[in-house]
Amino acid sequence: MGEVARGGCCPPMDLFRSEPMQLVQLIIPIESAHRTVSYLGDLALLQFKDLNADKSPFQRTYATQIKRCGEMARRLRFFKEQMLRAGVLPKYSTTPIGVNIDDLEVKLTEIESELTEMNANGEKLQRSHNELVEYKLVLQKAGEFFHTAQSRALEQQREYESRQLSGESMETPLLQDQELLGDTKQVKLGFLAGLVPREKSMVFERILFRATRGNVFLRQATVEEPVIDPVSGDKTEKNVFVVFYAGEKAKAKILKICDAFGANRYPFAEELGKQAQMIREVSGRLVELKTTIDAGLVHRDNLLNSIGAQFEQWDALVRKEKSINHTLNMLSLDVTKKCLVAEGWSPVFATKQIQDALQRAALDSNSQVNAIFQVLHTRELPPTYFRTNKFTSSYQGIIDSYGVAKYQEANPTVYTVVTFPFLFAVMFGDWGHGICLLLAALYFIIREKKLSSQKLDDITEMTFGGRYVILLMALFSIYTGFIYNEFFSVPFEIFGPSAYECRDLSCRDATTVGLIKVRDTYPFGVDPVWHGTRSELPFLNSLKMKMSILLGVAQMNLGIIMSYFNAKFFRNCVNVWFQFIPQMIFLNSLFGYLSLLIIVKWCTGSQADLYHILIYMFLSPTDDLGENQLFVGQKNLQLVLLLLAFVSVPWMLIPKPFILKKQHEARHGVESYTPLENTDESLQVESNHDSHGHEEFEFSEVFVHQLIHTIEFVLGAVSNTASYLRLWALSLAHSELSSVFYEKVLMMAWGYNNVIILIVGLIVFIFATVGVLLVMETLSAFLHALRLHWVEFQNKFYEGDGYKFHPFSFSLQDDEE
Q1: Number of folded domains in the chain?
Q2: 685: pLDDT strictly greater than 70
Q3: What keywords is this UniProt entry annotated with (predicted)?
């Protein structure tokens, strides 16, 4: 295995190929199984295979233990909910708890019972308290009704008696005495008192009137402060009501209406003395209940604080126990029922660490027998495992988003670390904007310890995870910004004075006649004098377009070279001779030649039209080039390259399917099965598309697949090269947007000589720069750089059909609850 990992033509390189993996088998005694799995979870270097996939979760050996852990997790969630309601935060502690899972289960059960009882008692007391508060309000407000009514009745009685004493008047009606002294039938009125929600009070009054046909008398009084409803527990604005009625039928109707409207009724005495006594009694009971409730809350807070002090440790222990039992359920029980058999993938370098963990588990469990560790030979494709750090993990994540590398396939991450931020910077080149990105990246890097322990929102978490990608993007943007000589679209003479000057002192003819060269060429990047001239756009367009083609052809060649390394590593000579070589010839016969012409034109200063040369290379390859000739023998070279390009297409298409068919017949013509020679061979089986195992070889399918692959490459060579022109387009768009914001916003505001307009213009410029150039343009350039890597670069060699190595680990386990 180790020879495979370091074999082939490639030198040892971290991240270039995934770690060599092995399929191991562990035979673990029952008494040490739990501790063994626990130690392997701490080690995080073994991915267990499920050997009980045909069994349901309830048929597995440790289903009962998982159910126990689920119940404990439910109790912990209940505790957390109670703590959040009470405003108690769990305290993180690193001190280990001296309790096992059985003792913890008993303890959690006791705490749950105590907390549930306290909650029930507290709710009961609080409901009684709320009822007494409402009762006291009814006594106070309704008492005012009766006091007012009695005062009016006394006044009327005095007035009547004073009339009797003063004698009859001549103006007194003759029938008045008969009306006052005649026989009157006394009617006994009943009444009900209570509270009704204020929003329902008008409807309540209307329904009462209609139900009793007006034979009620209703009085209401507003309660100033909202009260807590005893039934719902919500704060509600209410009115106190007293309704007078006559007869039992009216009373029955009123009671039903009160129930329908959620009106709480309370007993009420008509005598003022009894009312005062009841108020005193209710006030006393309120004080007692308040004291009892406060004492209960203090006791409950103390209990929740004691839970919070150990909550994180309890939660970690329960989650750890549950994950251990889940893993134990993936192990098969030996026929003797004394051992558990485990299988899983592990890196080769982890063999010694796993064996040490097995020995420690057996020793700590006082097991009489040590666990057995052995390597299995298999044809199954191993998982892919790259050892990354906080810097390379984000770049590896970019590649894994496209597809996980096949086992020991060449990993694009090695080159993406440099090429991705560089291609981003080609589109984003401005050293002022680059400095802004650098400050943002440094903020996340400096505060990474604090931010990594916090719960972040989705966008912030994504930005924080890519902080080192943003760092290199910013540094490369500063570099390309120096090349483009742009600082928020403003040029600076950083590396020396400009090589050009005006023909006269007044510079009247600078835009028509042009400038003259008086010094040596500007030493680094674009001469600042180009900015703002008539020829700026044609010059920069030509420069960036040709630069985009050069970068694109170079990266596509790198992708094809990577396919050669893959073919050599997997010992696939067919792909070397009939894929790598014709692809290199085809791409470089056309676009490699174009790149050569660009470089020669730059070096010689020729005025040759490269469009004309490339087009007529196909249309009229035998015609003389004339003024478009860049070097001697160019015509003959073009004929040779054109012939090679045409030959490379059938070279890619025809031989490979026939060779694969011949290899299949040679492999499976004599015997159906071949023994495994060694582990290295077994782990390379099925590593290529050409390996079909013992399946039937369908020549038509293989030929059609090769035809599609050939057409895709030939057309892709053209479309991919054109796709790299996005580097030029986005760079131009970024530069022009930056120039528009600077000239049409900031400089226009400056020209008004007004402080307010200048401040407004500066604010608009800052928001436009941040919102458009530093956010939208950054995202746009990022996505385009991502596309160039995923499509134009990786499709030349990267299959990405592997699967990730997911070791059993406590530190990486997800929250399953």
Answers
A1: 2
A2: no
A3: Coiled coil, Hydrogen ion transport, Ion transport, Membrane, Transmembrane, Transmembrane helix, Transport
